[in-house]
Design a protein that fits this description.
about 170 residues; mainly alpha; Serine Threonine Protein Phosphatase 5, Tetratricopeptide repeat; elongated
Length: about 170
């Protein structure tokens, strides 16, 4: 058989491990490319990357949150808030590895999504917004009341003159 020296055996054992860890450090996870684009202010490229992530993993909380931020940046607030609501449900226990949100990585994706919804003045029962659970549904719009007569019309009508009294 082969007779290896101690140095050669060590090299053969460590080299594959080193290559494996170097390869793993290149993989950053879902949303990483778009994250770096946002850091550099390139929202168009970020949105393309976030859309690809969302197509590949539509249930992933980071994909939902990121596409929501891109939509929000582009002004599509209602669709963005729907994505944030999805991220609230799926991201309850998911802590992001990186975040540009003020709360950082110490909170879950759900907390980030709730913060975004609250900034848009939206309530979500999954965020623990008790008032959203207690509010009755909005009533249907009522018929508009008849307009009151205009003030100008009243002011232009001649005032009645009082009857004259006889001094005798």
């Amino acid at each position: 058989m082969f007779k290896l020296s101690g140095r050669s055996a060590l090299l053969c054992a460590i080299l594959p491990i080193g290559l494996l860890t170097a390869g793993c450090s290149m993989v950053e996870g879902i949303g990483a490319e778009g994250f770096h684009d946002v850091e550099h202010g390139n929202w168009q490229s970020a949105r393309v990357n976030f859309e690809q992530d969302y197509k590949m993993a539509p249930e992933h909380p980071v994909a939902q949150f990121n596409i929501g931020t891109a939509l929000h940046h582009d002004g599509d607030i209602n669709t963005a808030d729907k994505m944030f609501s999805e991220a609230v449900i799926s991201g309850r226990t998911y802590y992001p590895s990186a975040s540009l949100e003020p709360e950082g990585t110490a909170v879950t994706v759900a907390r980030h999504a709730c913060t975004r919804l609250h900034r848009d003045n939206k309530l979500d029962t999954n965020c623990g917004d008790q008032i959203a659970m207690e509010l009755p549904p909005a009533p249907p719009p009522a018929a508009a009341p008849a307009p009151a007569p205009s003030v100008e019309a009243q002011a232009t009508a001649p005032a009645p003159t009082p009857p004259k009294q006889d001094r005798n």
